[in-house]
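tRNA threonylcarbamoyladenosine dehydratase
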Amino acid sequence: MAEWTERAELLFTTEGLEKLKNANILVVGLGGVGSFAAEFIARAGVGKMTIVDGDVVDITNINRQLPALHSTVGKLKTEVVGDRLMDINPELQLTRLTEFLSPERAFEMVSPEFDYVLDCIDSVTPKLNLLIAAKRKKIKVISSMGAGGKSLASKVKVADISKTENCFLAKTIKKRLRQVKIDKGIKVVYSSEIQQQNSLRKTDGKNYKKSFYGTNSYMPGLFGLYAAETVIRHLLK
């Protein structure tokens, strides 16, 4: 094994590191949740990854997103995050897809080649289609629900989507999933804290996003950590 994985090998064992090296992961969305999740997975030693995001770094991302610095504003997130992942593990087999995930493309992108899919999208329709595709194709998936409007780290947990509470995004996704006869069996990261309604802002609806909540520096990263932990522990079994 590579020298940089020495500490991980003590915990995961040589066999465990081999499982991670042979794994193939899809991360869709490289914002506050996805950027951290992708990095945690790369640092664990996963050998193959596809990252998907069509956006560039915006000045408003700096308070919470891993790729967001004053020096990276305007740069593609797949470029900034991808370069960082390759600097962590130069042997990583990395595919970068610089695109906004249309609802139709979600079904095409999810395939049996992936051991796990991380849904870190914050727009309802693409998120919904990605989850439906994963569920119907029987691909393991973990989905990030709403980290915005929340502040209590102790309220973040992983659960089946049917068990979520106090999350408007989860409520919307559950309602839409029920319309296609899916009411459980999708693992999510969510917070049971009641959202701070006064932090809500409306948008012009571009890229399937109609509104957003205020966010702090640590909650999206914590969601990404829980998502990455779920994937890594599954791969090590």
